[in-house]
Specification:
The protein has about 210 residues and is of the alpha/beta class. The protein is built from 10 helices and 7 strands. A 7-stranded mixed sheet has the order 3-2-1-4-5-7-6, with helices on both faces. The longest helix is centred in the N-terminal third of the chain and has 15 residues. The protein is globular, with a radius of gyration of 16 Å. The structure holds ligand LU1 and magnesium ion.
């Protein structure tokens, strides 16, 4: 049977990236998506904004919602100190299988825990199952209608602390209007918009950075 796009993306990583070299994995995926097949990775332009937010924050405990092929997982994990931990949630088994191999090729499996399952099932279990008190940084890039309910769920589960940073992809395209309205009007967040472009295209998109005020 025909291979899937994530399988072809992994093949391109194995062919063009050096094992243990996260930057070459990132470049191989960006090249594949720009010249072979578009895929919904955050990409190089918005990825540089993600890099600057992570580097400035130096987070110890990171949560990513929506792993897909692991592109943003690699972008974030490569910037973390070895003691730091990134938990990434992905409910599609096929995507999870590819992402595990992409993360391993980059040599970052010691910092990343990929959990297969739905965010709404795992967010309430972060404390008892992973011993997480609160997250320092959360990257939202899963189904767009899940951003707001999952943010409220993280608040209710006490997983956010004063200063926790939420960074949301795709706030223009495909768009997350309910989430944007919430973080921009809630007294519990200080929010700002980073204008950019939809990965590998000229269409407008952007990231919303929201700091939880407690
Ligand atoms: C609730 C939940 N729990 C765990 N994993 C979850 C989950 N919801 C989705 N996921 C997983 O995240 C991934 C989903 C991501 C959704 N992202 C998107 O739909 C998405 C779509 C576009 C886009 C833009 C313009 C176009 F013309 C076409 C597409 C661009 C992007 O950057 C995106 O992230 C894969 C899925 O299995
Ligand atoms: Mg996205």
């Amino acid at each position: 049977t025909r291979s899937t796009r994530p399988q072809r993306l992994l093949k391109a990583v194995r062919k063009h990236a050096a094992r243990g070299d996260p930057q070459s994995v990132i470049s191989a995926i960006d090249h594949f998506c720009r010249h072979s097949e578009w895929a919904m990775n955050i990409g190089d332009e918005k990825g540089s904004i993600l890099d600057s937010v992570v580097s400035e924050l130096n987070p110890e405990k990171v949560l990513e919602l929506g792993t897909y092929c692991g592109y943003s997982t690699v972008r974030i994990a490569r910037l973390l100190p070895p003691g730091a931990r990134l938990i990434t949630l992905e409910f599609n088994a096929g995507y999870a299988a590819i992402a595990r191999q992409v993360i391993a090729w980059a040599g970052l499996e010691d910092r990343v825990q990929l959990v297969e399952g739905a965010s709404e099932d795992w967010i309430p279990r972060m404390k008892e199952h992973f011993g997480i008190e609160t997250f320092d940084f959360v990257f939202l890039d899963h189904w767009k209608d899940r951003y707001l309910p999952d943010t409220k769920l993280m608040e209710d589960c006490g997983l956010l602390r004063k200063g926790t940073v939420l960074l949301a992809d795709n706030v223009i395209c495909p768009g997350v209007p309910d989430y944007l309205q919430y973080v921009r009007n809630s007294l519990s967040y200080k929010s700002c918009y980073f204008k950019s472009h939809l990965e590998y295209t000229k269409a407008e998109d952007g990231l919303e950075k929201s700091v939880f005020l407690g």
